[in-house]
Each structure stands twice: as C-alpha cells, then as structure tokens.
Amino acid sequence: MADQHFSSWSRPSRRRVLSLIGASSAALVAPGLFGKGSAMAAPPSEPTGQVIVGFSQEPTIFNPHMPHIEVDEGIHFSLFDPLFIVDDKGEFQPSLATEVPSVENGGISEDGLHWKIKLRDDVKWHDGKPFTAEDVKFTIELLVDPDFRSWRRDGHELVENLTVVSPTELTFDLKSPYAPYPSILAATFIVPKHILGEEADKNNAPYNNAPVGTGPFKWVERMAGDHITLEANEDYFGEGPYLKRLIYKYIPDLTVLYTQFKTGDIDVVGLQWITPDKYQEAKDLPGKSVAVVPAATVESLSFNMDRPQFKDPKVRQALYHALDKQTIIDALYYGLPTPTETFMPQQSAYYNADLPKHEYDPEKAKSLLDEAGWMPGGDGIREKDGVKLAFTNSTTAGNHIREQAQQFIQQSFKEIGVDMSISNLPPAVMWGDYWMMSKFDSVVVGINFLTGSDPDVSNYLAPTSIPAKGGAGQNTWQYDSEEVGKLLDEGGSTFVTEERKAAYMKLQEVVRSDLPFLPMFQYATVRGHKEGVEGVVPNINVRIDSWDVATWYWDK
Amino acid sequence: MLRFLFGRLWQSLVLLVIVSVIGFAVLNLAPGGPLSQFALTPGMTQAQLARIAHQMGLDRPLPVQYWEWFTRLLQGDWGRSYRDNQPVLSVIWSHLMATLLLMGTSTLISVLIGTWVGVLGALRRYSIFDYAATVGAMVALSIPTFWFGLIAIYLFSLRLGWLPAGNMYTIGDGSVLDYAVHLIMPSLVLALVNVAVWSRYMRTAVLDVMNQDFVRTARAKGLTRWAVLTRHILRNALVPMITLLGLQLPTILGGALVTETVFTWPGMGRLFLDSLGYSDYPVVMGLLMLSAILVLVGNLMADIAVAVIDPRIRLG
Q1: Residue A388: how many CA atoms within 13 Å on its side-chain side?
Q2: Which residue of B has its CA nearest to A58?
Q3: Which InterPro entries match (chain A) (predicted)?
Q4: A462 vs A472, A490, A499, B198, CA distance in Å?
Q5: Is A256 within 8 Å of B262 when comparing Cβ atoms?
Q6: Chain B residues within 8 A of A67 when measuring between CB atoms
C-alpha cells in the first residue's frame, strides 16, 4: 500500500512524558488467523529447505538506517535484530537485550530519564565477531551523526551520556522523558561497529550492499531487479532459523504476483499481497492457505479544515451522513474491510468501541445543511455567504478501487447538493508538499496513525503538529483543537494505564464528533502461503510479513 | 568517409549535451522528487525530509546540480543510484544482460521468421498464404502484449504446466537449458508483434524491388527464379531492413517494459520504469544518455552498413 500513510514516529516534545514503558496493554493484538492446527509438526532439527517470498516492490536499501520504504524492512528483519521486538500480541520480547527495560525491573528510572540495557553475551555477527554494547552505542550515535543520511532521529536525539558499562551492559539518559522510545528501539536494528564504524563515508559504504548482521539469515547475493538470496545463520542466538535458504523475489505486478503464487513459483505472497478481488478464488485454491488479515491502516475522507467550506461542523456531519460506506466496502472492496468510527485500530487496547455509529442518511444530510443555512443556488449547488459547497478531492492516480470509490462518493454528495470534483495526482506529487503543506481541499487517504503499538497520535492530531502553520508533525487536516491538544498531553503524561486509556477514549470521542476526517474503514489484506509453510504469523505492529521469518519452517 | 565520421561525431556530441540539459531539466522540474516516496512511509516530517535533501545536495540550485553531474560524467563518473546506492553504470550493466538475452533472442526470431513470411507473401501475392499472413500480422499487432502474455501463462503454465510462468531462471539452477526453457514464452510473445512488423516491411520492400526493370532483365536473361530472388531481389530488398535494424538498436537495448513485467524479467525496461517511479535521477539520466547514444550509434552504423552493401550510396 505504497499510497497509504503509515504511522509516524512521534517527534520528541516536552509535552510528552514517559508512560507506556513496559505497558503491554498498549498492544494491538492480531488474532491468530493462520490456523496453528494440532497437526502442525515440530520444526526440523537443522535448517532445511527453501522458501521464496514474493514482494511487489523491490527491496534495495539494506542498511536499515538509511532512508527506505517498508519492503526493505523485510530484508532487515531477516538480517538484523533490534534490542527487543514487538510480537504479534503487541508485547515487547527481548532480542539482543536480555530483558525489556521497564520501571518495574529497574531498566528505566521512575522519571523515565535514566536507562539501563543488559545485553546477551552469546551473540555473534555473521562474520564471527562478537556482538557487544559498543555496537549498540555505535548504532545510536550513527543515527544522529550529522554526516550520515539517517532515516530517523526521533527519540535518539534525546539520548545523552551513552556509556558502555561492560560488553553486556550500557546506560544512557534521555534529555526529557519520551514514552514512545521503547517502540522506536524495537524498530532500531543494531549494526556492527567493527565494519560500518571503519568506513569513512558511511553513506556510500560497500557495507550498504553487503550487509552483515546478527539476524537469523546471512546475506548471499542480490540479483538486481529480480531477487535476493539469504542463507541460514547456523549460529543464530534465538529460535531458528529452520530454513536453509530464504529468497525474496521481486514481482512488479500484483496480477503476476498472484499468478506465480497459483503456479507455485513463490511460497509466500508478501507485501501488497493478494488483491481483494481475487479473494473468492484464492481462498479455495488447493494446497494454499489464504486468510484475511486486518491492517492498522484506516481509510478516510480527509478535509483541509482551513477551507471555508469545511469550517462549519454541520457541513462535515452532513457529508458523513451522505457517505454510503457500506456500499463502498461491499461493492468495491469485496466486503473485506471493517467499517470504523475512529483512527485507532480495533485491535488496540485503546480502541473506543462505544462511539456513535455512522448512519447513511441523505435526508438527514440535507436537513443538516438546510439548518446550517447552506441553500441550493441556481445551479443546484448549495452555498452560504458567497461560499459554494464545492471542493476538489484528490488521491493517488492509478489506485483504481479508490478512484471508483471517489466517483461513487462524488455521486452521493451530488445528491445532497454538494459538488465534489476529482483531481488525482501521481504519488510523488500527491504526497509531497500538496499533502504535507495542506494544499488540498479534501483527500481520500489510508493512514496508520500509530507508532507500532503506542497509542500516541500527537504527530497527526496535535494542534502543534500542523506543518502548514510551522508545526513539526503531519496534522495536514489543520485540525486545531485545544481539547485534543489537552487530551494528548494527558495521555502522554500519565503513568497509570487506566488513566491513559481514559484520555485516549475521550480523544476518540472528540475526534468522532469534530470529524476532521470521515473515518471509513480499517483495511484488510488478503495474505497467502503454501500449505506446509509453518510459522507465518501476521503482526499488525510491524510493517512487513517476514518479521518472524526465523521461525518459519516446512512441515513435510 | 573520415570527414563524414568526424562531422557526425561532432553533431552527435552537441545533440547529447542538448538531450542531457532537457532531460535533466524535465526530471528535476517535475513535482515530487526522490524524497517524496518517504513522505508516505512512517512519518517523515518536513524537517526530516529537508535534512536528508540537504545531505544529498538536492537543495542546491538546478544549474549547479547539472554542472556537477556533467563534469563528473566527463570524467567517466555516471553518479550513484539513489535507490540502491550503486554506481549507475553497474546498475545498468546488471540489467543489460537480461535484456540482451530476451531482446536478442526475440529479435533474431522475428527477423528470421518475419523476413521469410514477407518474402513469401510478396512472391505469392494475393495467395491464401499472403492473406493469412496479412490478417495474422494485423491481429498480432493489435493484441496487447500484457494480455497475450497472461493468456500464454494461463495456458502453458497454469493449465498445461509445460513452461515456467515467468522469471529468467530457476533460482539455484541457472543452467543453459533452464535459461532456454524460461526464454521460450517471453521471447515468442515479444517476437509475435515484431514478426508482424518485419513481415510487413519485408513484403513491401520485396514488392518494390520485384517491379523494377533490372529484375525483369534478370528474368529475361533466363536466370532461375531462385537465382533472381537471392541475387537480385533480396540483396536490394534487404537494404532498407538494415536501416530498420539499426534504428531498432536502442529498442533492443531499451528492453520491453510490458513483457518484462508480465514475465518478471529483470531487464532494462523495468529498470527504467522503477527508476522513474522512485525518481532515481542519476539512473534515469544514465539511461537517457545511453539511449541517446544508442540512437546515434544505431543510425551511424546503419548508414555505414548501407553504404558498404549498396554501391549506389556514398558517404560524404
């Protein structure tokens, strides 16, 4: 879903105070959809066989800290390890660290400022050199190195007094408490100091195309434009790997990706998966296991609240009543997505299930507009005080289903006297300044609002996050609500999970009633693999299928 | 001849500079840019993007960027791909062999079959064969390659299971036979259209020559039909084909986007599309320069070859 927005790492800010640390209740839990039946055999005693994963985008960035897209993370998860990971239940699990630091176990001080990380002593890099705390220190320092083209600095910028106490222990302080930092560390893959640290020009180092990690698989080769071959790291410290070879195959067309899944050329359909229109056929394919997996991405019709047409809350309410989402879901998305009223994924512990349900009711929409004084003009288009209820709607050109949904919405709005014209743009234009600097009237967009499993959405909804007004985040709706700001601060400053929950529940209520965007549905993806490939577990908290590839195996 | 070559070379260099300026300007002036793809994925902020753009030197004025690119090119440095951090030439090289294999095979097939279909069609004009070839060519030209490729995959891979559904080779195999088996479907699908094109050209060329006086003279001398065909008709009819082949050179190396996509063939067509999609300017510029050079070289080679074959033409 290259044209959807995924969650941001929140920008550090003083408003936010540590709270989530160790709170597994923040979790998003994906139901175990790929049945782990009783017939499942035990994994083999040594790596056997090979699995080919098909991706519809080509992984090209192998240094996990350089700017990359989600498909690249498929390779990163196979080659590298972070200190700890977020599992499919949304809980942190130790990886290179022996335990996940928390206030309870003394890894983090009460005020959230002092951290202590304990590391495993049995980890080796793929070249046989031992992994130590120096590598962790190097990685965090690399991320804020002004010469390094680093992907992301949020959180890491707050780290100071980074000290290697022993090869298996390091401590650091944060300049200010920052609740999402554990989530960020869970996605920060550790890279080797003894190789990358020796490079003068880390941006163009040979290492970037011949990565060495600690992960379950080792780099073998890349055939540009075609595939990447990895092989089992027999010295892996964790569980697995059970596969001798792992191949990531690039198949640039979704129809062809599905065809090669049918012919058996690929064993697992990876990123961008099976298109919804193929689901009916795919679920009955012999020898294949196909399931619908929820994604955290929420589709919405989003407004630029700075436009005079959208300043009136009645207008936004009326448009919501005119939106026939169930028909869009059933007719265009094959009934797979789940309708939603909020930005919070329904798998999250912070999901508010008691929000008012959307009603499709064009008559009510009309009366709301009448009430608010938006009366039909000579051309049938409603207007008030010289402002016509007419606006453009944009999305990525070439996303056919979404374009059809737009046309359907256009019809629905026309019926209540609202003129929505469609103006779609190529992705590079759409998600550039046009989106970031709020140059649109309205857009149809899919966004994953969360950072991993953390419920903090300040980056998207805080009044201080409006880039068009000099803010740092991605509040491109220009949704400027004092109450939301207050609730976000509350949610970020309380240590008690229940209190934190209350803030986010209330937040969802406010956003539901303000409607800066009309929530439509939460995406579902159709995923599949050959029967016999075991261990393929979807994880809504990560961006890529191969997060647990270490424990995949063939049940022969 | 030397003067001709020198003149051509001079013209070509000027042309290349113009092409590069226009290409660079169009690429960079188009909205978006190499960093816009990151706005989509986990929350880039404007500030982060601006920092990376600065580190990559993308925030400098365009003429400065062009001049740097140009002077480096003069020193043989084609730059580095934004997308995979490899030198541009090695990126292109890694896709070139795949394309040469596919396009070479399919061009060979289409030229061999196409010319003979064309010759036979012309010799037996208005025969059943000629009509069949004409209609066949029209049909082949109008079938979209994408659709035809998928039908072929459906039939030969999914239904019959005779041929692999795509890819250049089985990962881990890579024997000559394995390549050959994988080559059959894409090269034939690609050749189909080109057979049609070549047969139409050849038919016209042969018909053109057949009606000329020297052919009638040759016949009147009592030469056999075969001798007339090979020594007189074909030798003359093939001259325009050589020009055509020269003009095809950039196409051959440029790859076949649609076929490469359907059959997941890692060739130049896909490289171009992917690089364009990621706004990988250094690679796009490299490909642009390369294809401009190929157009020039192809034309030059065709001119020289024609001059060598056809004594009526003198270069100068």
Answers
A1: 14
A2: B274
A3: Peptide/Ni-bd, SBP_5, SBP_5_dom, TAT_signal
A4: 10, 12, 19, 64
A5: yes
A6: 35, 38, 52
